[in-house]
Amino acid sequence: MSTSFGTGPASETLPDAVALVPGNRPFAALYSGKAHTVIARGLLATKSTNWMVMLSGFFEPVLYLLSMGVGLGALVGTVTGPDGQPMSYAAFIAPALLATSAMNGAVYDSTWNVFFKMNFAKLYQGMLYTSLGPLDVALGEIFLALLRGFMYATGFTAVMGAMGLITSWWGLLMVPASVLIAFGFASFGMGITSFMKTFQQMDWINFVMMPMFLFSATFYPLSVYPPAIQWLIQAMPLWHGVELLRELSVGMFTPGTWLHIFYYVAMIVLGLVLTTGRLRKLFLS
Q1: Strand partners, 15
Q2: 3-state class of 88 per DSSP?
Q3: Residue 262 and residue 269: Cα distance in Å, rounded?
Q4: Which secondary structure element, helix H or strand E, spans residue 262, and what is its range?
Q5: Long-range contacts made by residues 43-47, C-beta under 8 angstroms, separation at least 24?
Q6: What does the DSSP assignment read for 177-204?
Q7: What is the pLDDT of residues 135-149, one digit of tens each?
């Protein structure tokens, strides 16, 4: 098949692949270097319609911290921290709530927003009919999710600092670590959403996220669970995020810290491969 430009003898005929793909770079069919256009479009849409939704997501972990950490914490007292030292219950759950906030913000942007754009607005079809490649779209959408995660992480870390729940300057690393967590969930969330066709299927996302939130050592130490359940919890991605931020909050670094980081790096790579492959299969095959 070919694409014609103009009429008469001066018209040119080019293969579709050349007409739609900029340049002859390797992987040009996947990535054109224009992810920033997807980001700009998303920022304009957020400014006009979604900013209240984004703002509300910041208050959820703060309210959990006040009710569980301060309210219930008065009854619990102190618990053992990741460095073996006693710490307040509020300081124990605050990093876990930060990890949860990063997960929720990234998952919302990379699942429900993507589901609407893919199945109702038909936005990605239109984007991929231009010079944009599937990796451009994936990186643009994931960046928007990361921006949301960064905003939540910065605001919540400031709240933790104001409440005296950060005991080390290393705790500032919780902000980039939260972005890493958001990146992992966003890259996988978009790929998984590409398999969803109905709202009923999308309910499975909440079905998975709620138990992960409750049983990832968010409110209780891992040691309170039976050994068989502990193995299951340690396989959950949120647990690695909770433990990573909890260690950073007290300035503790162990081989386990690097394991948590590697877990999310692997999650990001696999998620990007899945998302790019699914977009290409759905709209360019």
Answers
A1: 2
A2: strand
A3: 11
A4: helix 255-283
A5: 43/144, 46/144
A6: HHHHHHHHHHHHHHHHHTT--SHHHHHH
A7: 888 888 888 888 888
E strand or H helix that includes residue 2: strand 2-5
- Half-sphere exposure of residue 114: CA atoms within 13 angstroms, side-chain side: 30
pTM over 0.70: yes
The helix-helix angle for 89-110 and 51-64 (nearest 10°) equals: 160
Closest of 134, 130, 159 to residue 61, by C-alpha: 159
Distance CA 252, CA 170 (A): 8
Q: Report the number of secondary-structure helices (H) and strands (E) in the chain.
A: 13, 4
Of 91 and 121, more confident: 91
The runs of H, that is alpha helices, within 121-254 are 123-128, 134-162, 174-193, 199-214, 227-235, 237-249
What is the rounded CA–CA span in Å between residue 209 and residue 95?
18
DSSP 8-state code for residue 224: G
